[in-house]
Design goal:
This protein has about 280 residues and is an alpha+beta fold. Helix content is about 50%, strand content about 5%. The protein is built from 12 helices and 4 strands. The structure holds glutathione. InterPro entries: Glutathione-S-Trfase_C-like, Glutathione-S-Trfase_C_sf, Glutathione_S-Trfase, Glutathione_S-Trfase_N, GST_C_5, GST_omega, GST_Omega/HSP26, Thioredoxin-like_sf.
């Protein structure tokens, strides 16, 4: 007879492949992110539908906190795709945003939308040339850095891991070489758009790639170190980051490249662009 502690196969996530000992993604934030979610649980016109482990959600959440907007955070199980998510995004991806009757998705688009509301501190600079530069380096992050993060994490062969580690290091170096020389943030003393685009991956280099792949600490005294510490110390970043264990557990499926992990994982394995 099954004991009360037995987990039925129906309760398991697809990525666990019927094995309850496999770690899976968390379904609620922990630590400071849990506190922030609690204090934004009340019904509001502006709602962020997110999943606590997701770096794309993290971008939008940091933006909302930075701007101190009046918003509601709604945690969704993105792999079980509730109707309220599909109603906004038929592709079933988080983040999704609802503002009154209107809804939209795609993390970069949502960050631009929050800018256009013109409430709270701006993330995009005023100067058109600096705005273009912000978009240019955001594109670099989306096109070059993020896919390599997943290639590196999902690679099972040591030779592939080494190759992707070098590629990722080089693409980050290209980004850092475009940063304001003094910093500490990408464009100078304040956090701006490019910082928020990159922040969730800076957090996950430390909390995911370091334990699973030995990603190194930034070189002491380097411009990269200065940037990493500024991001890690930012209040909006800290308020939306969960405890370390959440990232360890939620990303084990990527580090083992387990089947049925996510659309991101499938795109990387299939040599396609990210969703
Ligand atoms: N390009 C999208 C990517 C969003 C994305 O991939 N989100 C993941 C979670 S981190 C997701 O919703 N996955 C659902 C699935 O794989 O079915 C964005 O920038 O918002």
């Amino acid at each position: 007879m099954a004991s009360q502690n037995d987990q039925s196969n129906n309760d398991l996530d697809a990525n666990q492949g019927g094995d309850a000992t496999k770690k899976t993604y968390n379904k609620q934030p922990t630590g400071l992110a849990a506190k922030t979610a609690q204090s934004h649980a009340d019904e509001k016109e502006l709602k962020l539908y997110g999943s606590c482990f997701c770096p794309f959600v993290h971008r939008v959440w940091i933006s909302l906190e930075h701007k101190k907007l009046d918003y509601q955070y709604v945690e969704v199980d993105v792999y079980r795709k509730p109707k309220l998510l599909l109603d906004i995004n038929p592709r079933g991806l988080v983040p999704a945003l609802r503002h009154g009757e209107w809804g939209c998705y795609e993390s970069t688009v949502l960050m631009e939308y929050l800018e256009d509301l013109q409430q709270g501190p701006n993330l995009l600079p005023m100067d058109p040339k600096l705005r273009a530069q912000s978009r240019l380096w955001s594109d670099h992050i989306n096109r070059h850095i993020i896919p390599l993060f997943y290639h590196y994490l999902q690679a099972q062969e040591l030779s592939d891991q080494k190759k992707h580690a070098t590629e990722l290091t080089n693409q980050i170096a290209t980004l850092v070489s475009a940063a304001d020389p003094t910093g500490p943030f990408f464009m100078g003393k304040d956090m701006t758009f490019v910082d928020v685009q990159m922040a969730p991956w800076i957090v996950r280099l430390e909390k995911v790639l370091k334990p699973y792949r030995g990603w190194p600490e930034p070189e002491p005294g380097s411009r990269w170190e200065k940037w990493v510490r500024a991001i890690q110390g930012n209040e909006a970043v800290k308020a939306t980051t969960s405890d370390d264990q959440l990232y360890l557990d939620s990303y084990q499926r990527y580090a083992e490249n387990r089947p049925h992990t996510s659309q991101v994982q499938a795109a990387i394995n299939g040599g396609k662009g990210l969703p």
